[in-house]
From TrEMBL:
It comes from Nocardioides renjunii. The chain crosses the membrane at residues 28-50, 70-91, 103-120, 126-146, 167-186, 198-217, 255-276, 296-317, 324-342, 348-372, 393-410, 416-434. It comes from the Bacteria. This is MFS transporter. Its main location: membrane.
Amino acid sequence: MSDVDGGIADLRPLVRAQEQKAWYFYDWANSAFATTIAGVLFGPYLIAIAEEAAVDDRVSVLGIAVAPGALPAYVITFSTLISALVLPLLGAVADRTARKKDMLAGFAWTGSFFAALLFFMTGDNWQLGAITFVLANLCFGASAVFNDAILPLISDESERDRVSTRGWAYGYAGGGLLLALNFVLVSFHDTFGLTEGMAVRISLLSAAVWWAAFTFIPWRGLQNHPPVHVEQVEGGVLQRSFGQLLQTLKDMRNYPVALTFLLAYLFFNDGIQTVISQASVYGVEELGFPQGTMLGVYLLVQFVAVGGALLFGRIAAVRGAKSTILGGLVVWMLIVTAALFIPEESLLPLLALGVAIGIVLGGTQALARSYFSLLIPRGKEAEYFSFYHAMERGTSWFGTLVFGLVYTFTDSYRPAIFALIIFFVVGGLLLMRVDTARGIRDAGNDVPAVI
């Protein structure tokens, strides 16, 4: 038996630690898209471009008149709905291949290419921005399936919360660093001899380049792990993947705890994703802050989230992931309630809200990822994480749709943001019904000391 396989010197923890360090950098890489593009700049810039093309304050989307202010929410709705249909099949493919790191990198580089095309969204050409964002966001979700499926392969059950939260911390640090540079560029664009529009376009391009460049670190540092416990089904690759998908759908009935958690995640993550995607629009359009100020607030959220993710990892080590997530959902309820009453152009309350979001943002999402990994059987990581992301994206369209509809009917973003509280309430109630110990045993995983 070799040393790595458990000889005199068991090197498996060292090998896992090396892969974990490389894995952290994909969160560092892809957070550039999640923050600079999806989180801050895309929504307000798309609105500004669409307003140039608007007739009677409406643009035509497939023959339907849409207010420019609601356009980002509807674009994200369409993008996430497409992702929800594609990702489960992708997960079936992923579990049949050893080349998970190559698939991760391939989707990341394709997504960064489409994200780079946002640089050419100028004048009144909002359609280009909408289409390329949809494609980039689809690749972003696909790469996340492979990234999350790798987590159980490079960490054991007792390490899972620590590794997941550290990955999120890297993500917020990387995304925050680029956002800081873009904050300077957009806020002081005159100093650099640029218009604000050009500064925004350069920032969008920088996020695409950052995403592509830092993906090389996990691509080089991770190993390709051979698939295990894969069902034998007939046919070609695509047919076998459909066969495994159908088999897994039937098999999921054997893991009712995992299904209950997925349902809870379906709701509370929808609330989180909608707050993230619409926060910049809310600050600019409802509270009256300039784009540069919102970049600064988002930057604050990013760096607070680094500590927040690590803090949640420490709390989970003592209280367990489920209890820690539930505590985070209570804070999310307080956040959307406070957003309903925050005064216009009042900076201190906005900063306080940003700090609160930063504390719970990374922690709740990171722990949800590691918690779910304990409830799924070995050999089906990508398959189950594809459903995990399908739940994330399959219902995120509902959150943004609710947000857009409430805004359309009330002409105010305040009730739209407060309406999201229902997602945190329902998600929390469902999570309380999850029996953690039973779920881990059903999946055949080892039960950590603290759950």
